[in-house]
Each structure stands twice: as structure tokens, then as C-alpha cells.
Amino acid sequence: MKTIHINLVAYCDNEVKPTLDNIFKTAQNPERVFVGLVNQDDDKFEYKGKFKDHVKHITITPEESDGYGACRKIAQKKFFDHDYYFQIAPHSRLLENWDKKMIAYYESKSGKHIIVSTPSSYDMDNDKKEFLFFVDGIQSFHEHAVFHYQPCKTLKFNKDGMKKTYTFFAGCIFAGRDWVEEVGYDDKIFLYGEEPDLNLRTFGAGYTAWLIKEEIVWHLWGRKNRKALGHIREKELYYKRNFDSKKYIIEKLLNKGYTKQDEFFSIMGLTYENLKEVYNKLIGVKMNNIRATAKFSRNYSTGFKTRAGNDFDVPMHWFKKHPDHFIVKMEAVKPKKIAKKVVKKIKKIRKKK
Q: Is 4-219 CATH 3.90.550.10?
């Protein structure tokens, strides 16, 4: 019986165990399923389910981790020795008999190829599953995630329920050993930029990505699964590494560092002029954060959330967008030019009062 390796990389995630339970519960032949997990967390992980011997894992703290690219590479190198490679998020739910279905889709195509899906959504509170959209191309470059993907509710698929695509998410990739060996992962990718890097290198290596219409994977969109401790504790390091990763990819694109990159740009309608604008914008927002007390408890983005009354290093773009949400702590501020102007204004207002 051919075996399947599932690659999981978790980051301070409460959904790892439920995801593992679901993987084996929904597989038609769980005996052929093996999981390689790299767990970025403070808590040591131990799986005690029926198929615990099929789960191999290592745990590293968030500070020790070099991000998704490095962790994916570790999981592939240490744990991958199987016929098929299946990549999902550690906060996922799978369709009944997913293993049989994914193998059937994969084996129905010839040549160098992978099977991909745009994961739909599930709710961890009531396990409700919901269709969101398919990824259908790229809208533009974006300083936050390098590519801004085009969502589409309806697409035309072939009679076999599949469609050739050039863009895909990292939340559902089913491939053979050849793709892992030829494409694999760039360990300089921290978080954002993972997908455009995979899209470009998969295309450059001559692989065809086949998007399937059938909903086989559901993903927990949002951050309900995230533990707060590690997420907040290493936040500054997270920002720095994430910035460096995005800068690395955009500079690689500007230097035409990907195989068949011009061809990919032409298909996607991407321009180097737009890429330069995004790069300049990205570099422009790289400033020291402002130390401030939060007035409100709020989730501003994936990497930044606050709790009322606590002190935070507030990213400049959030401070500029919502200045009334924060009370600046003068003694802790180490800003650059723009931040200094903001602080000077606040000092003048305080003196007048």
C-alpha cells in the first residue's frame, strides 16, 4: 500500500490535536497515513491517539524557529520517506475518505504535476463548514503578503472537476516525491511570501498545478486557534523576521531570481513598475515601533493585537491609522523621523493643557 506523508507546521496552535484526530478519523485507510509535525511552541507536544506511532514530531520555541520555510524543510528532511506528500495547516478538517480521493485525483494526471485546493472555512466552536472562494490568479503585488490573490466564487472546471492554475495556497498541496525534491522549501521564507515563492518555483520547475473543485480541506481562517503567550512574547522578533522575509522575496523578484519569472509575470499581468512601487512602500514603513498603552482590546492584524491597559510596541502604520487608540509612553519611545514628529505634537498638546 502506498503511503502518504502529511506535513504540519504549527505555531502556538490549540488545534493541533483536533486536526490530528480528524486526519486519521476521516481517512479511508489511516494505516497508510503518516504525519511529520514541527511544533513552534513553549509546550511540549505528545499525541496519544490510536495512531500515535504514525505521528513524528519535534518542538521548538517561537524564538528558536526561523519560520515556515525552515520548519517545512525540517519536516520534509526528517520525516518524509513516503510515496505522496500532503501539505495542510495544523488547523484543518478533512473530507471523509480524503486519502482515496486525493490519490485518485493525483493519479488521474500524467507528467510533472501537483494537486491543489483553496481551503474552505470551518468554525472550531461548532465545526460548521462553509465554502469561501477559489484562488483565481493575482490582482497585484502587495507589501503585506507580496501577492494579492484574486478570490472567485465561481470558476469553470473541466468535466473531471479540475482546472489548471498558476496560483495556489499552501493550505492544501498534494504531490509526489519529485515535487518535494525539486521544489521543496526556501528556508529564508518566514511567513508571508510562502505562497508566491511556491507558485513561482513550482511553475519554474515545469510543474502543472491542478485546482480541484471538490471541497476536501477546510481551514480555520482567522486566529481563534492561536495561543496568546508565544504570539505576544516574541512579537518584535516576529515583525523583524517577517519583514526580512518579504524584503528578500521582493528583491529576488526585482533581480529576476526565479526560473521562467518573466513568463509567469506575463501570464499573471504583473509589472516590474508595480513591483518597485510595492518595494519602496515596504521599505518606507520599516520604522521603529512606538511604545504605548492600549486603550482598547482589539485584533488589528495577524501579527498585532492589544489588550486594554497593557503596554505594546505599536507598529507605526497602526499608530498613524488609529492614534486615539493609544497613549504614548514618552520614556520608552525610540522612533525615527515620522514617529518623532508625532511625539512632539503630543508633547505640545500636553504642555498647553
A: yes
